[in-house]
């Protein structure tokens, strides 16, 4: 069974690095699909009202999501709670391989929307660079 639903998305992000904390919030429209028992969430990101990239999230199960962002910075992450992995991040200055340590992945989606919560650290050379928390609230239109 395939389902497709237009949704309203609110993204709350907190990034901690070097004693600094940066919080952001944005609202956007997107699409929520259900296909092969997996939820797909697609939306565009904006920076000062200009398109800054596209994000797609695949919810594999309540504790595993795949996150792909294309735009100013490109990356593809498979976040499985408690499982360390590595991934390539592409920035305007170049690309970098980083370690990813997801400590909390919670995905509770239905055809009417729901919430995705992710907490993960990014590491390089065994050193923690940032701690990231992202909460995505999805509501059917």
Question: How would you describe the overall organization of this protein?
Answer:
This is DUF1934 domain-containing protein. With 141 residues, the protein is mainly β. The chain has a single domain (3-140), classed as Beta Barrel (Lipocalin). It is built from no helices and ten strands. It has strands at residues 3-17, 20-35, 38-47, 50-61, 64-71, 74-80, 85-91, 94-110, 113-124, 127-140. It has a ten-stranded antiparallel barrel with strand order 1-2-3-4-5-6-7-8-9-10. A hairpin with a 2-residue loop joins β1 and β2. It starts with a strand and ends with a strand. The relative contact order is 0.22.
- Calculate the terminal CA-CA distance, rounded to whole Å: 21 Å
The CATH topology is Lipocalin
Counting structural domains, the number is 1
String of helices and strands: EEEEEEEEEE
CATH architecture assignment: Beta Barrel
Question: Regions with pLDDT < 50 over 5+ consecutive residues?
Answer: none
Amount of beta strand: over 45%
Which shape, going by the Cα principal axes? Answer: globular
Task: Give the spatial strand order of the biggest sheet.
Answer: 1-2-3-4-5-6-7-8-9-10
Going by helix content, strand content and strand pairing, the class is mainly beta
Corresponding CATH superfamily: Calycin beta-barrel core domain
Name the CATH class. Answer: Mainly Beta
